[in-house]
């Protein structure tokens, strides 16, 4: 079979896998993105007692392979079925997609927290003092001073993390969630044709390129107050 | 050249020739297997690969006068690994199917194959049709004939495909899947273990040759006709002299060569 024929006969499976990869990545990144700024705030401004559990969590997640975490949550939860049923959690853990998402969220949250911590700590103290001086409330300072600056600083590192998350989602097939990589291996075991791996690589590359393009556009928007001045400097 | 020097040279040369010939006498072959399919092939706690497939394979090696090294390879890549010359033959409970015959050649079957459904004890699943199994969660190992079987026979079921049979069993025991389709003998074997006690075989054995083929064979590269012939001959030999039965009885209560 040539590379074109293989895609012609197996594209529904590949499409299915691509959608699953997108679903895992987008959902995982969004949920993690909603939690991590708050953890990062505690991590950079909270008391030591509040910081400790977050530190332990982050070092556990960053210090263990995501594959091990996936096995632990998926097959591990299976061993505690009676307990989980009692708590009413078995229905959640029974579904492999939920387990995969849970692991990706836990994982990405840890990394994003560290990235955001760097962003928050990078905010110029003078700006925060100025905001206090003109009488902004804490929430307003967060919303109008700290987070806009923190995101601007953390933005490139966040894109890195999301790309890594997308590629980590290729591990989901070990818990029966068939993403691009899972579908590819499945097609390969039917056809023994290596060209399907090439297609998989191209799909990943396409997703990453589109994502980087969009992310860069947002980055320019976040930096719009700096960009024209830089350009002016470049001209002079 | 002095006589003495000549003598030394001759001795050295003949020693070299003898050394070479003894190395050539024991042909060395590599036997590929999966190592995750008890009782046919599995990794023991000491790291050795063991099981029915492996013992039969090593016995055949002995008969054809080869020194065999056992190589473990994940199932998904087991045929490409043979073609890529990572080992010389596969003895890993592989069903002889038309699809696979396009890639590799098979010896005569060394045991007969059947697949079976397995459900938790007390399960309400009694009927095995696509309608009856709609939305039922069915597990199987990915890339196997049983995976093909459920995909074709029960397209409306919720199909879960696992990397190895061990993981299907793990999720069968934990109740994450409602049913599985697997090879008869490993499941029969597993149902006698503590974990496997949760579940029982159900329905008629699946023996449709479209799925299980003519039985389970040893795969060799298509150009290795000679090796295939020698393995076939050795297989007949161990069948005839009772060695096969001896190995068989270590693992099974029935003769898997005839399934009786």
TrEMBL record, chain A:
The keyword Cell inner membrane belongs to this UniProt entry's keyword annotation: yes
Q: Which GO terms describe its molecular function?
A: transmembrane transporter activity
Q: Which UniProt keywords apply?
A: Cell inner membrane, Cell membrane, Membrane, Transmembrane, Transmembrane helix, Transport
Can you give the residue ranges of the ABC transmembrane type-1 domain? 18-215
Q: What's a single GO BP term from this record?
A: amino acid transport
Q: Where in the cell is it found?
A: Cell inner membrane; Cell membrane
Q: Which residues cross the membrane?
A: 20-42, 54-75, 87-107, 162-182, 194-215
Main subcellular location: membrane
Any one GO CC term of this protein is:
ATP-binding cassette (ABC) transporter complex
Which CDD domains does the UniProt entry name for this protein? Answer: TM_PBP2
Topological type in the membrane = Multi-pass membrane protein
Q: Which domain of life is it from?
A: Bacteria
Q: So what family is this one in?
A: Belongs to the binding-protein-dependent transport system permease family. HisMQ subfamily.
Report what the protein is called: ABC transporter permease
Q: Which organism is it from?
A: Thalassospira profundimaris
**Upper lineage ranks?**
Bacteria, Pseudomonadati, Pseudomonadota, Alphaproteobacteria, Rhodospirillales
From TrEMBL, chain B:
Pfam family name, one: SBP_bac_3
UniProt xrefs under InterPro entries: SBP_3_CS (IPR018313), Solute-binding_3/MltF_N (IPR001638)
Chief location of this protein within or outside the cell: other
Domain named Solute-binding protein family 3/N-terminal: residues: 28-255
The alphabetized UniProt keywords are:
Signal
Location(s), subcellular: Cell envelope
In terms of domain of life, where is this protein from? Bacteria
Q: Gene Ontology terms, cellular component aspect?
A: cell envelope
Signal sequence span is 1-26
Family, according to the entry, reads as follows:
Belongs to the bacterial solute-binding protein 3 family.
What name has this protein been given in UniProt? Amino acid ABC transporter
Which organism was this protein described from? Answer: Thalassospira profundimaris
């Amino acid at each position: 079979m040539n590379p074109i024929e293989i895609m012609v006969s197996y594209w529904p499976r590949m499409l299915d896998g691509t959608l699953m990869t997108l679903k895992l990545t987008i959902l995982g990144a969004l949920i993690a993105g909603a939690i991590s700024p708050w953890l990062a705030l505690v991590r950079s401004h909270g008391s030591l007692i509040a910081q400790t559990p977050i530190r332990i969590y982050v070092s556990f997640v960053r210090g263990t392979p995501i594959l091990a975490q996936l096995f632990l949550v998926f097959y591990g939860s299976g061993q505690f079925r009676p307990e989980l049923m009692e708590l009413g959690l078995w229905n959640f853990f029974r579904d492999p997609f939920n387990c995969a998402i849970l692991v990706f969220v836990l994982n990405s949250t840890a990394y994003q927290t560290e990235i955001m911590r760097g962003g928050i700590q990078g905010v110029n103290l003078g700006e925060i003092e100025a905001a206090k001086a003109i009488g902004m409330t804490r929430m307003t300072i967060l919303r109008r001073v700290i987070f806009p600056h923190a995101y601007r600083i953390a933005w490139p590192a966040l894109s890195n993390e999301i790309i890594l998350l997308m590629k980590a989602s290729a591990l989901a097939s070990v818990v029966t969630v068939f993403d691009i990589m899972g579908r590819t291996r499945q097609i390969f075991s039917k056809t023994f044709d290596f060209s399907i791996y090439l297609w998989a690589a191209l799909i990943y590359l396409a997703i990453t390129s589109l994502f980087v393009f969009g992310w860069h556009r947002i980055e320019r928007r976040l930096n719009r107050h700096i960009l024209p001045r830089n350009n002016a400097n470049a001209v002079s | 050249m002095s006589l003495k020097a000549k003598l030394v040279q001759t001795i050295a040369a003949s020693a070299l020739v003898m050394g070479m010939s003894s190395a050539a006498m024991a042909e060395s072959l590599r036997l590929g297997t999966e190592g995750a399919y008890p009782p046919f092939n599995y990794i023991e706690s000491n790291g050795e690969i063991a099981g029915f497939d492996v013992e039969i394979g090593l016995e055949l090696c002995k008969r054809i006068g080869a020194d065999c090294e056992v190589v473990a390879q994940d199932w998904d890549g087991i045929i490409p690994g043979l073609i890529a010359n990572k080992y010389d033959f596969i003895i890993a409970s592989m069903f002889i199917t038309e699809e696979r015959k396009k890639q590799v050649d098979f010896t005569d079957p060394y045991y007969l194959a059947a697949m079976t459904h397995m459900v938790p004890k007390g399960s309400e699943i009694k009927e095995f049709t696509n309608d009856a199994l709609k939305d039922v969660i069915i597990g199987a190992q990915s890339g196997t004939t049983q995976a093909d079987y459920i995909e074709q026979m029960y397209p409306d079921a919720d199909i879960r495909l696992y990397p190895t049979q061990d993981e299907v069993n793990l999720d069968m025991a934990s109740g994450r899947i409602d049913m599985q389709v697997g090879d008869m003998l490993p499941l029969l074997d597993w149902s006698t273990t503590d974990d496997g006690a949760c579940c029982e075989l159900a329905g008629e054995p699946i023996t449709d040759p479209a799925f299980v083929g003519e039985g389970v064979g040893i795969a060799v590269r298509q150009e290795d006709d000679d090796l295939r012939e020698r393995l076939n001959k050795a297989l007949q030999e161990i069948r005839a002299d009772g060695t096969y039965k001896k190995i068989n009885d270590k693992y099974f209560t029935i003769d898997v060569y005839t399934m009786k």
